[in-house]
Amino acid sequence: MTATASSRVVLVTGSALRLGREIALALAGAGWRVAVHYRGSAADAEQTAADCAALLAADPASVKSAAFACDLNDEEAVRRLLPQVAAQFGRVDAVVNNASTFEFDDAASFGYAAMEKHLRSNTGAAILLAQALHTHLLERQSDPAENTEHQPGCVVNLLDQKLWNPNPDFFSYTLSKAALEAANTLLAQALAPVLRVVGVAPGLTLTSHLLSAEEFAALHRLSPLGRSSTPADVASTVRFALENQSITGTTLLVDGGQHLMKFSRDFSLMGSSPLKPLD
């Protein structure tokens, strides 16, 4: 939908911290008003919202950024999320599905509980938010008060280069991301022309408690280009996907070419630290 740069609204899930925060700040810097989603990091989410609002200081809108709590494993809570954002901002134009459950299992330890947890938060929530945005945009199109030329809204789903370079670590997580990548195609077909759906697949971008700084730096260099993705790389690609009106039903790999190289283990397990359960 046509909108001035300052009036566009994007919901970024999991944007209190880490990569989600970088995406939120980059989009605010480009003029998007940002709904900051979080599950438990309320203070960090409020800080991210405040930082986004500061980047939009010249924006005349009364709501520049705000934080919204939601457990993405809770279907009813997910169904309420986008309408809550629309009620506070007056509109929603895009969703970035960045939040992700990432807990270790493998083929030997796989079970229904792990699979369901990952599929609910990583796949189901993203589909429900696309569904909700599609409904919202249809309602706006039918509103005679919106005398604008309609352009499609957009959903960006954060994926993972390991879908093109698979290894069996984090089994349920990988299944959930593979399902989300397939959903890109299905949703792009089903929700056009009202909505575009685009995947962005980073490589190794941020470190974890399983890697030392030296190990992360060495692994980050393992790519044909000698570097994997940075948060700024991923954020700029998300912005490109949101703003390029010709892209839908495909995935942009942002990984320095890591998907072209074979890795037998997940990056987080290629260091010397012992595996620990993730919260």
Shape: globular
| Strand fraction | 5-15%
Please report the total strand number as a whole number. Answer: 7
**What is the CATH third-level topology name?**
Rossmann fold
How many alpha or pi helices?
7
Sketch the major β-sheet: 7 strands, parallel
Give the % helix: 40-55%
In words, what does this structure look like?
The protein has 279 residues and is of the alpha/beta class. The chain has one domain (9-269): Rossmann fold, CATH 3.40.50.720. The protein is built from seven helices and seven strands. The chain has a seven-stranded parallel β-sheet with strand order 3-2-1-4-5-6-7, sandwiched between helices. The longest helix is centred in the middle third of the chain and has 30 residues, at 112-141.
